[in-house]
Design a protein that fits this description.
The chain has 223 residues and is mostly beta strands. It has an 8-stranded antiparallel β-barrel with strand order 1-2-3-4-5-6-7-9. β6 and β7 form a beta hairpin. The longest helix is centred in the N-terminal third of the chain and has 9 residues. It is elongated. It starts with a helix and ends with a strand.
Length: 223
Amino acid sequence: MRRLLLLALLLPVRLPAQTPGTFPIAPPKPRLGAVSVGTLPLLASGYHLSLEKPWRPGSRHSAVLTPQWYRGRVNDLTSDLHQNGADRVRGYGLDVQHCIYLGPQQAPSDGFYVSYGVSYQHFRMQFQAPGWLAEPGPDGLYYYQYRLRDQMETIDRYSASAVVGRQVLFPNTPVFFDAYLGIGLRKATSRAVIPGNYYAASMSDYGHEGLYIPVGFRLGVAL
């Protein structure tokens, strides 16, 4: 028995052949999802949180839900209407996208993708604009006066868009940077005390409708 054990220890052990200077490469981990925050909406007092979930582990297809909240002041980047910084926006919305990753991925949330979907947004604008209103005079009678007054406009907007994007994963971290650019179409309806849509001056305005260019940057964490 001792001779058999000694013989077994002395026998040469054959290892799997490997190419000199190479090491086995582990396959990329399957994507379980991601959470990211939009940066450009912050300039319009908007807060966008994107939640991504692959259709199944490792799938190139995923659903992206982006709930949106708006609360704050209106500034020159969105509209040139505001008077003395008094204009304010409140609102909410939801964006639903189908995302398809292209080409090989060395890591989750890294690479090019195309995405398309629809969204809905509701805005409640508070601003000042000249208007007529009956006001009591010194004699107790009412007279129409024309001056700046507090006004309100409610906007509902529907959108459809398609974008091409690129995600870059920071080395040795689950954090990634996302940039995208595309084309879309909007339809908006407006209700206000005074006639006219006051928030449709530019593509970045709250009440804009028609063709637009969706562009954005996101910072997120891969799960």
